[in-house]
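Standup, Tuesday
Yesterday: got the pipeline producing structure tokens again.
Today: sanity-check two examples.
Blockers: none.

Example 1:
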Amino acid sequence: MMKSVIKAIIGIGLMLCGTVTTLQAGQYDYEVKDKKISFAWKVDGDKLAVKLAAETDGWVGIGFNPSKDMKDANFILGYVKNGETKVIDEFGDSESAHAPDDKLGGTTDVTLVGGTEAGGMTTVEFTIPLKSADKNDGTLNVNGDTVILLAYSSGRDSFKTKHTYRTVLKVNLGTGASQKAN
């Protein structure tokens, strides 16, 4: 009987351990980690406060709700160079590319909070509206699943470099529930 209980507890523990883990973070309500990148967030009124961090000396990025691959996603990318943080707001204009919102008839709706690059880790913090007036951004549903694309590049602080790592997750922004997506 005792061996069965121990096996059940170990089995449940193994099921709960996966590549994606959800933790409580300091000033953020939730955090999802996958390999060398993390996405922490807090719903703050009509805004989403975000902290992206990755083991990289390049940019970190996130895309929200693509229709297929990268298409139709609202992308925010950021890097830190010489102590200065840069962010861009882009839109997935095809399945494999994105371009600046303002060049596609949209607007830049990201507010930079800050960033650091130290010890091989790049961290960028910003806010975006849950419901943007930008036709390219769409609405972030706090009570349902949001498809999240996380990525980072290595070697250069340039938005022109391609990602060296990427992953796709489904996240509930209101509860913190998360899972790998296909």
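Example 2:
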Amino acid sequence: MSANREAKIALVEEIKNKIKSAKSIAFVDYRGINSSEDTKMRKAFRQAGADYKVYKNRLMLIALNDLGITGCEKFLEGTTAVAFSNSDEVGAAKVLVDTINETKKMEIKFGILNGNVVDAKAVEALAKLPSKDVLIAKLLGMLKAPATGLVSVLSAPARGLAVALNAVAEKK
């Protein structure tokens, strides 16, 4: 087997491993972006816990088909970069949408969420969701609110008694 073929097989395995470990994946047409915009975007990906790579479309398609993810052939044409979101589902999508809004140069092709192929609109909708940490904080706040209200209601009679006793004591 030639060294070139072995390198391609290794690259397909790398892609498959990244797909398996990613919580969500977004594919983008990166045409028109300059190096400073690319550098800024890659830094944002690192901060969001995401990987951003450019692979050959053919190798990406082989990896996807090997994993049983089909229906991507029509999207994998032209310039394609892929963003793997490893820490949460929305990280890579947020960075892509923010970069697209800022530069007006790139275009989302499609995405993969929970092993299912989704269109560009679904990736954009995913980017609008709050991060996992924000959602957890909101949930905890909602769970804490009834307990706080219950404590206030239960302590009200004791507080009322203390106020009444204080008023009687001040009259004397």
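Quick observation on example 2: The chain has two domains: 3-129, 130-172. The radius of gyration is 26 Å.
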